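Shipment paperwork, digital attachment
Item: protein structure file
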Amino acid sequence: MKPIKDIELNKIGSFKDLVNQMKESGGFVAKKVGVGAEILEKMVKDKDCFVFLSFPACLVSTGTRGILKDLVKHKKVDAIITTCGTLDHDLARVWQDYYHGYFEADDRELHRKGINREGNIFIPNESYGIILEEKMQPILKKIYEEGKDWSTFELIWKFGEFLENEEKREESIIYWAWKNKIPVFVPGPTDGAFGSQIWFFWQDGHKDFNINILKDEQELSKIIYDAKKTGALMIGGGISKHHTIWWNQFREGLDYAVYITTAPEWDGSLSGARVREAVSWGKIREDAKYVTIEGDATVILPLLIKSLLEDK
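Attachment content:
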């Protein structure tokens, strides 16, 4: 039996102090945040561990994009598995702004004004589809001249390279992924505006241009079979989470896992499935260090990652 300890604000001098006290507080999700911070630190410091980061696109439309970018910039992760919308939002925000909105907005009025709502984020058409078409098509023409067959991670690196002369390049996840040669895998590359622009390009006289997702799978297989250990920081469910744990079953599971979700467990969904369920599939090792943290990643990630990056 371990006694509960009160959080003492006057003894908090850093984010690391805060999450450590949260772990000792026994405070429901607060304790899980503290445990998650501890596992994440061990994962990143383990020199034998290959670290995956998986997340859905919605976070990239918010300021949390900056936290994800810092993980890549500071080389705290070794590979990313995400959705097509991540590419949409990351590129679009290099060239245009997104705006504060509110959940209770009149969506019919927004539609008439050409404003798309993602939760409490407002995204005008000119900040999304229009700017992506304007900027992506010339880049795709240049990429086409270099080659016709691309994996998603190779194509994303090329886009990162083309951001080199952009004023806001250092805000981009894609830019730092290219700069630090961290592969970004998108197993559903046509499920977003980025994929639609590739399709537009393909049908406009470039039908020998190919996105070869099996090349991505080949690269993932090399990573998995070469890794001594693996770990993952997974945010949200869907294809990005599943592709991460799916590949890790072929090496008998992840050694470390920190999972953040808002989904309920009782509906049987992958998003709601706690990490412990993946143990039964062999996607997480029986002796792995893992935790599921229930809550909004836009609140939890700043605590976790600031604590991680504070530790020099």
